Amino acid sequence: MFKHIHLWWLELRLESHLGKYDAYLNKVYDEGAITDDNKLRIALETLRSPPLNKGQRWAEHQKLVGRQMGVLPVPKPAPITAPKRGSRWSGAIRVVFRTLKGKTAKPVVIRGKDKEHAKSP
Amino acid sequence: MGLSYYAVSGSGQERKRFFLVLKLIEASNEESFVVQPRSEMDESIFRRNLLMLINKYDQDFAAVKLPSGSAALLLFRNDDVSPLGDTASPRKPDDPFYSELRKGPRTSIGQLSTWESRGERNVFAILGNWVRGRADLNQAIPAEQRGGRRFTICWNRPERGGENV
Known about the structure:
The complex is a heterodimer. By secondary structure, chain A is mainly α. Chain A has six helices and no strands. Chain A has helices spanning 2-15, 20-31, 36-48, 54-69, 88-104, 111-119. In chain A, helix 1 (2-15) packs parallel to helix 3, helix 2 packs across helix 3 and helix 2 crosses helix 4. The longest helix of chain A has 17 residues, at 88-104. The termini of chain A are far apart. Chain B has one domain (3-160). Chain B has three helices and eight strands; from the N terminus they run E-E-H-E-E-E-E-E-H-H-E. Chain B has helices at 43-56, 114-118, 123-131; strands at residues 3-18, 22-37, 61-64, 72-76, 81-85, 87-90, 97-101, 150-154. In chain B, the strands form two sheets. Chain B has a five-stranded antiparallel beta sheet with strand order 2-1-7-8-6. A three-stranded antiparallel beta sheet of chain B has the order 3-4-5, with helices on one face. In chain B, a hairpin with a 7-residue loop joins strand 3 and strand 4 (72-76). The longest helix of chain B is centred in the N-terminal third of the chain and has 14 residues, at 43-56. Chain B is elongated. The model of chain B has no long low-confidence stretch (mean pLDDT 82). Chains A and B meet through helix 4 of A and strand 1 and strand 5 of B.
């Protein structure tokens, strides 16, 4: 959730620089970035980059319009390799729960198997 | 060089947004030239001549349409290119970049930006323009002060079908 808010704030800041929001969206298209982490990185890089001149702004705008219209090719989004994980809190709760479960759990005895083992010499 | 030219006005009217509310217009207008070869000319020579002109007159870029390619390109001074569009059409109010002819009939009201045709109406933008010394952007442009017809390079959209030039 905090990442969402941070990204929203960075996008607002990008819109106050001429052409940088278009450049940011084009980079997101280029890298096929889906996750908030990647978008945050791209937004920060774009914000820190030097201001765009008129030609660069025009080029970024036309490239974005072409992609949105489907005239220019859009790269496929990069596959997400890392498994999806919850927040730190959910991870911590899971660890505590597992620990408690481990302490309170009793050893499981499979009676049928025990009988078979008992029969066999 | 074997090139002919005529003067146009290259314009940009982008909106800068501040904190959801304030949208300021960044209008720019500069003298530009449409350059074309007088007779048959090899594409590589034409491109080399253009690059020479861009560097000679300290320009950042030129919009180029070559016969071999389907799309117009933006040619930067370091020889980089970026696709611009595959057709040209009369300017619409939401097109931020366009060229304005100097001669000929005056532009129609449908090609003007909204702030040009009826003046700026956003109170914050009016105040912002006034503070930045651009109070003229708050007023509608009188009919006698309008420039020539406006054209923009764009991608071929279905709704623009009949208007392409």
